[in-house]
Design a protein that fits this description.
Elements: H1 2-19, E1 27-34, E2 37-39, E3 42-46, E4 51-57, E5 63-67, E6 72-78, E7 97-101, E8 106-113, E9 117-122, E10 134-140
Parallel strand pairs: 1-4, 3-10
Antiparallel strand pairs: 1-2, 4-8, 5-7, 6-8, 9-10
Length: 142
């Protein structure tokens, strides 16, 4: 009986270790907008994995975070009202990924990136990108 018990316990511990590995929940990321900067300036996510992005505007100006061309599946969004939000000189183009928050507010966006690559994100409010309010979104292969 002891001969069967030890391998059985070993097998059970391996199964538990495998289950406790990667979390099945979303990849939760918080990006702050402060002093015409994004913190952090680089975001890393994995293709095919749900991302919950919280945009926290702690600045005294309105900001947004936008990616022009970004292959993804949108899941959901909770945004603060952005009445009068000016997306600057976008030339009539709309970003594929866009989350905005008035000064002192937060907004949340859930999406699943579908293609690995490196994408630029930036604030579309007039003059903010030119002042350096931009960053890099890296989507890694699964």
């Amino acid at each position: 009986m002891r001969r069967f018990l030890i391998p059985l316990l070993l097998l059970a511990s391996l199964a538990l270790a495998a289950c406790s590995g990667a979390s099945s929940g979303p990849n939760e990321i918080v990006v702050k907008a402060e002093a015409l900067k994004f913190i952090p300036e680089t975001i890393e996510v994995t293709a095919g994995k749900l991302v919950k992005l919280t945009f926290d505007n702690v600045d005294s100006l309105d900001h947004d975070l936008s990616v022009m061309e970004f292959p993804m599946e949108m899941t959901g969004a909770t945004q603060a009202p952005m009445a009068g939000h000016d997306m600057g000189n976008m030339g009539g183009m709309e970003p594929e990924l866009h989350v905005a928050a008035l000064m002192g507010q937060m907004a949340t966006l859930e999406f699943t990136p579908t293609k690995p690559g490196t994408y630029e994100f930036f604030c579309t409010v007039a003059g903010h990108k030119e002042a350096g309010m931009k960053g890099t979104l890296v989507v890694k292969a699964p």
